[in-house]
Structures are given as structure tokens and as C-alpha cells.
Design brief:
- The chain has 15 helices and ten strands.
- By secondary structure, it is α/β, with parallel strands linked by helices.
- Strand 3, helix 1 and strand 4 form a beta-alpha-beta unit.
- The radius of gyration is 19 Å and the shape is globular.
- The N terminus is likely disordered.
Length: 329
Amino acid sequence: MHQPAPSADLRHRTIEAPAGRLHLVEQGTGPLVLLVHGFPESWYSWRRQLPALATAGYRAVALDVRGYGRSSKPAATDAYRMLDLVEDNVALVRALGEEKAVIVGHDWGSGIAAASALLHPEVFRAVGLLSVPYAPPGGPRPTDVFAQMGGDQEFYVSYFQEPGRAEAEMEPDLRGWLAGFYAAMSADTMPTPGEPDPHFVARTGGRLRDRFPGGSLPAWLTEDDLDVYAGEFERTGMTGALNRYRNMDRDWKDLAPYGGAPIEQPSLFIGGALDASTTWMADAIDAYPATLPGLTSSHILDGCGHWIQQERPEEVNRLLTSWLDSLQG
């Protein structure tokens, strides 16, 4: 069995893109695989995949999405709409000297990857979705849906959508907040059934961190890993990352012409059995025969939470490389 290449082989680059600049980290040579992270992460969430994909014969590239890490952070809230993030990905593929790529995303990155494949099938020849299932554009206005969730509690997405509100909770203690948020959605540290759900806050004066578990970090997250994540957000602040949530109604309008559209390219889905993204969107997974007609590989990992490629890196790497290999035939 091949041993993953050491992290010293990672190459950091910055390329020009509609965002201004995009920071990326790449490893390996071969067919291009673009890895797109979610909230609140960075390219670093793919640290276990980059060497594995490189060893398997792929050019693996993980970017900092605009607003994150060492990529540009436009000031305007509407600069984080989905259409702009998709164009960043197209520009990145071109800047790397390629015509086509496989795109793989986790969490918000899954939505970005799906939209990239939907809008630019000529560039993104296959799409892998981790944790968050594909649901075609359409349906009711997102903010109306979120406002109706939770009864006397407020759904975290609504909480994130008000500029400055979540930042006021997070930024005074970013490292502590991130540790709690990661733990709240990890299989080995998430609240047990019956405990308050960390996806909701009290409508008056509530904070998400009031429901975070205390104690140890999840097994996948070392103190050094947490330092890396916290260091990035200490430098950038949280507004660029949170602005993704503040564009969901804009995305709803922008993508209306694609209402109900399936993604035809070969696709992969991997979800965690204990992840709310998987359980809440079970109907979207059930609809895959219609919405992802090119689906060739679909897996729910027992005992796995939300941070799937970090919680279960060996399993995800095996599934990912096997799927990628199947595309080469």
C-alpha cells in the first residue's frame, strides 16, 4: 500500500481570480481534483486528503474560499453570492492550466461544488459531495423557511444572517468558540439526545456557545489543529465566512433559472449517520435517482458526525480515490 506523501510536499500558491486573489495548496500530479471547504474551516480541512490523492495519482488542490484564510476578503456582503464563488472556481481551474476538473466539497463547499457542476458542466466533469446532500434550486425563499424552524428557538442560520450579531459572540474568544462548534457536531463529543440542540439559540439574548459541549476536543482535532484554524480566523475575522449565509436569498433568486435541475455528471455522496445535515435532508438523499442521475457512489458512515473527512480520513480517502479511479475508465 502506498504511503501518503509528506506534508513538506505541499505547494502554496496564490492566483488571480474574480475575488481578487485565491490562496490554494496543491500536491501531486495527474488529473485535477479541486477540494472546497465549508464553514468554519479552510484549505486545512483537506490536510488528510491532499497526500492521499497525490499518492493515488491525482493533482489535489485545496483552496481557501473567498473570505477565508489567505484569499481575498471583499467588503461587500453580496460579493459572497454563489454565482461569484462558482466563478472563482472556474478561474482557479483556468489559472492552473487545466480545462476540466473534478470538484469535491464539504459542508458549504458541497453546495459550492454542486452549483459549480450545475452551472459549468463543461469545466467540472464530476462532483463529490460530503455531508450536505444536493437539493436542486427552487422551493420557498430560504429565510422564510428558516424563520419557521425551532418554534420558540431560533435556527442558527437565521442567527448567522444578521450582520455583526454572530461576530459579537465569536470574535472575543475565537479559539474557544471554534473548539465548541467543532465538538458540537463531532460524533464523539456532540450532545446526547435530550440535551439542548446546538443548532438553535434562545430568541432573546441567546448564544450558540451556550449549548456547546464542554471538556475535551473531538478525537480528530488536536490542539495544534485548533491553533491553525483559530489563527486564520484571528487574522481575518468571521464576517467573510458568515457572509455565505447572508446571501442565501440572493442565491435563491440567482439560481431560479435552474429550478429543479439535476446534476448529470458522475457524482459521489458521503454522509455521516450522526450528522444533522444528513438526517434533516433525508428526503434530498432519497431523491437522488432524479436529482443526481449520474450518482455512482453513495455512502452513509455509521457513527460519524459532520466533519467527515477529518473524523474518518482513511475511510473517506478510500471511497474518494476509488470513485476517482472509476472516472478514469
